[in-house]
């Protein structure tokens, strides 16, 4: 007989260690989504999403902004964290309390205890946007984890090893999923496949990813 589970597939566990030091918390951000969406509107009114240029001269398909004491920026001269938004000449918007609450709750849930991020990099993917294979190594101290929050349309996230050529594993990251990347996973190569189309009822035709970092 066909069971319901043959049709809907396995149910994801609420908490899963996907690599050494990396904990996936399915749906962890859902209860924060209203406050997070309101805070996101406040941040992007002051620091709108923009597509930045890489040192190689390519305009990124992902649009970005930041909040917190500094923001991640790229231009023809390189990647760095900078206290001022180069587009406005003003400091980046403050980290909203709803963002801080989400990041510290998730880090504690994953077993990382105290985590007070100083930067939140905000990525916006529209259909076709992708992020090519990279490591995150512009932060000062890799002992601190990165907390990532996925909102809106789902994406295929690819997670490799410490060498660019290591094989990657794929994970679907859906609305509300949170991953805490610490320990041995912190410097692993990763990428996001081109976003498929679709419409999310709160976030529309987009995926938003928040990454909370101790950068300074
Ligand atoms: C693993 N963002 O902003 S989130 C990035 O979905 C970035 O927008 C992706 O990669 C996104 O740098 C992926 C998951 C993620 C973020 C940072 C990591 C995984 C990570 C840093 C180290 C290891
Ligand atoms: Fe990254």
What are the salient characteristics of this protein?
216 residues, alpha+beta, Jelly Rolls, seven-stranded antiparallel sheet, four-stranded antiparallel sheet, 3 helices, binds N-(carboxycarbonyl)-S-(naphthalen-2-ylmethyl)-L-cysteine, binds fe (iii) ion
What does this structure look like?
With 216 residues, the protein is α+β, with helices and mostly antiparallel strands. It has a single domain (15-213), classed as Jelly Rolls. 15% of the residues lie in helices and 31% in strands. It has three helices and 13 strands. It has helices at 4-8, 33-46, 97-109, and strands at residues 15-19, 22-25, 63-68, 71-75, 78-82, 119-125, 131-134, 146-152, 155-159, 169-173, 178-181, 190-192, 207-213. Strands 1-2-11-8-13-6-3 form a seven-stranded antiparallel sheet, with helices on one face. The protein has a four-stranded antiparallel sheet with strand order 7-12-9-10, with no helix packed on it. Strands 4-5 form a two-stranded antiparallel sheet. A hairpin with a 2-residue loop joins β4 and β5. The radius of gyration is 17 Å and the shape is globular. It starts with a helix and ends with a strand. The mean pLDDT is 96. It binds N-(carboxycarbonyl)-S-(naphthalen-2-ylmethyl)-L-cysteine and fe (iii) ion. N-(carboxycarbonyl)-S-(naphthalen-2-ylmethyl)-L-cysteine (MD3) binds at residues 121, 123, 131, 136, 146, 148, 157, 179, 181, 185-186, 188, 190, 192, 209, 211.
């Amino acid at each position: 007989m066909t069971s319901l589970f043959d049709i809907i597939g396995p149910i994801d566990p609420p908490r899963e260690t996907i690599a050494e030091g990396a904990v996936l918390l399915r749906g962890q951000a859902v209860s924060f989504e209203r406050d997070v969406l309101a805070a996101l509107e406040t941040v992007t009114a002051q620091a709108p999403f923009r597509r930045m240029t890489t040192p190689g001269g390519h305009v990124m398909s992902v649009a970005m902004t930041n909040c917190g004491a500094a923001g991640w920026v790229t231009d023809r001269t390189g990647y760095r964290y900078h206290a001022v938004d180069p587009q406005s000449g003003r400091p980046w918007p403050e980290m909203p309390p709803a963002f801080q609450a989400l990041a510290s709750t998730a880090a504690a849930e994953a077993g990382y205890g105290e985590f007070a991020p100083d930067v939140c990099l905000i990525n916006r993917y529209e259909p076709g946007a992708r992020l090519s294979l990279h490591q995150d190594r512009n932060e000062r101290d890799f002992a601190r984890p990165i907390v990532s929050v996925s909102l809106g349309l789902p994406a295929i996230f690819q997670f490799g090893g410490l060498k660019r050529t290591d094989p990657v594993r794929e994970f679907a990251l859906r609305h509300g999923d949170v991953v805490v990347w610490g320990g041995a996973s912190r410097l692993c190569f990763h990428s996001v496949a081109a976003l498929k189309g679709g419409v999310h009822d709160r976030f529309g035709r987009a995926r938003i990813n928040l990454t909370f970092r101790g950068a300074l």
